[in-house]
Design a protein that fits this description.
With about 375 residues, the protein is an alpha+beta fold. The chain contains 14 helices and twelve strands.
Length: about 375
């Protein structure tokens, strides 16, 4: 039967309350053909996530309603392979409650690392365009380090980034630091074994939100942090810093930056609007400031503070990164891609793309 996960916002309840609720589910599940397996409890966030098998979402929801009078805020079907990657194959389950191997309650938090790698030189001479975004040697080394630090690669079907998930913030940070050190060792002092630019974003996420699917929000935020990170920089959220036991190391790290919750909220709002309007060639700072409800000077100051770039430059970066993703998919011609990312002039699109990536899009076989 299909595997489902749901989310409940339960407020202030005890671990014993969650245990009783789980036992009540078990008592009536057979009536609806559902099997409740386990659950995760995040006391600080006031959330519970249940994992179950059932014939459909309605049967899972009906079991909860009869057993406890609860209504799940969302129920999603979860692909088994993705579940194993994020939640782990060897779990310690205590009467339904998932715990870590050390006995601590598993809150459902997972830590998503996005690594972006771009080759620096010689791009215009390359025939193999695959090297543009993920040069093979540094990519292989990064994947090796991810495995050594107990991370698991998330295969999203995209081509632009390496994305990995970790069970603890310490492991995610250790991985990011090892990748950063490895890449720096091979890019400084003229050795140029890896002639690349790179950056990383690390987000904290729970399995579901009220609207987004299985770790969708966490992966999106990790990518967005990566988007605003400078060269060789790691960016994390304030929540990650608070949850990580190596706070002092984090604070002293010369290539790591933590964004404030208010900055993260602003970034989300900015990018939600930009994503919706990316194909509109008239979309710019005027429309953006109106949509966000801030003045243009405020918008300029905030975007500079968070990204180090002007709003115009940042919007251009978003468009060109999207164009690169579409080119990698090899589903559209260049004129279609230009229009999709808000360029009504293919020649101007080609000029901007070449300035950003060092290669004209027309040299890439579609």
């Amino acid at each position: 039967m299909p595997l489902y996960m749901d989310i409940h916002f339960v407020g202030e309840i005890s671990v014993e309350d969650t245990r009783k609720a789980h036992l009540a589910d078990l008592a009536v599940q057979k009536k609806y053909g559902v099997t409740y397996h386990q659950y995760w409890f995040n006391e600080e966030m006031g959330t519970v996530y249940c994992l179950m098998e059932g014939p459909d979402k309605e049967s899972c929801a009906a079991t909860h309603r009869e057993a406890n009078g609860f209504t799940a805020c969302q129920i999603v079907e979860v692909e088994g392979g993705m579940y194993d990657i994020f939640m782990g194959e060897k779990q310690k389950v205590d009467h339904g409650l998932v715990r870590h191997q050390d006995g601590e309650i598993d809150t459902g938090y997972r830590y998503i690392l996005t690594l972006n790698i771009i080759a620096n030189t010689g791009i215009s001479d390359w025939i193999d365009f695959d090297q543009l975004r993920l040069p093979k040697r540094p990519k292989s080394k990064a994947l090796q380090i991810i495995g050594e630090t107990d991370g698991k690669e998330i295969r999203t079907g995209g081509f632009d980034n390496i994305i990995a998930v970790f069970e603890t913030p310490e492991k995610a940070l250790r991985c990011a630091h090892k990748i950063q050190t490895e890449f720096l060792d091979h890019t400084r002092d003229g050795s140029k074994k890896y002639d690349i630019s790179f950056n990383m974003g690390i987000s904290v996420g729970q399995p579901l939100t009220e609207k987004e699917g299985f770790f969708v929000k966490a992966i999106q935020m990790s990518k967005r942090l990566c988007l605003i990170a400078g060269d060789k920089e790691i960016i994390t959220s304030r929540l990650f810093e608070e949850l990580c036991d190596t706070n002092e190391i984090v604070k002293r790290h010369i290539h790591l930056r933590t964004i404030k919750p208010s900055e993260q909220e602003f970034l989300d709002n900015f990018l939600d609007i930009a994503d919706d309007r990316i194909s509109d060639h008239t979309f710019g700072v005027n429309f953006l400031s109106q949509d966000m409800g801030v003045s243009q000077p405020q918008l300029y100051r905030k975007v500079i503070a968070i990204t180090g770039r002007s709003p115009v430059s940042f919007i251009r970066e978003i468009r060109l990164n999207k164009a690169l993703s579409l080119i990698r998919e090899k589903k559209y011609n260049l004129s279609e891609i230009a229009l999709e990312v808000g360029y009504n002039s293919p020649s101007y699109f080609s000029k901007c793309f070449h300035e950003r990536f060092g290669i004209k899009p027309s040299r890439i076989a579609i």
